[in-house]
Amino acid sequence: xxxxxxxxxxxxxxxxxxxxxxxxxxxxxxxxxxxxxxxxxxxxxxxxxxxxxxxxxxxxxxxxxxxxxxxxxxxxxxxxxxxxxxxxxxxxxxxxxxxxxxxxxxxxxxxxxxxxxxxxxxxxxxxxxxxxxxxxxxxxxxxxxxxxxxxxxxxxxxxxxxxxxxxxxxxxxxxxxxxxxxxxxxx
Length: 187
Known about the structure:
With 187 residues, this protein is of the alpha+beta class. The chain is built from 6 helices and 7 strands. The protein has helices at residues 3-20, 64-69, 87-103, 111-116, 160-171, 178-184; strands at residues 26-28, 31-43, 46-56, 74-80, 128-134, 138-144, 151-157. It has a 7-stranded antiparallel beta sheet with strand order 1-2-3-4-5-6-7.
């Protein structure tokens, strides 16, 4: 292994350790959120992003289908870890995730509305997308820009069916990537 690959491996490991560190607790939908797990999406041995799932305590460690089907508050945070990710590739990948979720039984008619939330976003390594589901309001999508250091709300998609499809692309029987699913489930 050359020094460059060793450095990348160590840097990715340290980033994952930082993601695993305790986070200040927060409330969503009137419930205390706890970290369920963090997984990494990889391609060609390179980490593309990290996905971290937060759920209410009663769902911590629950089975994939229990988390997908639960009409409970939860958050899924994606942290971009590759400079190869741009808006077009991100949108294409998420669209493919919705197709996989649909083939596993989690269908939504709101995927296009969700993808349109990213029309004016420029993605760089270090950016974060937070998806906060509250049964009362729906899925609020926020974007934190590493370049500006600021966060903005991209929009809200209402409905449990959308939440099931979105979470289903990560945790369903046909997930985006098995290792990512396993990490998000805390396994």
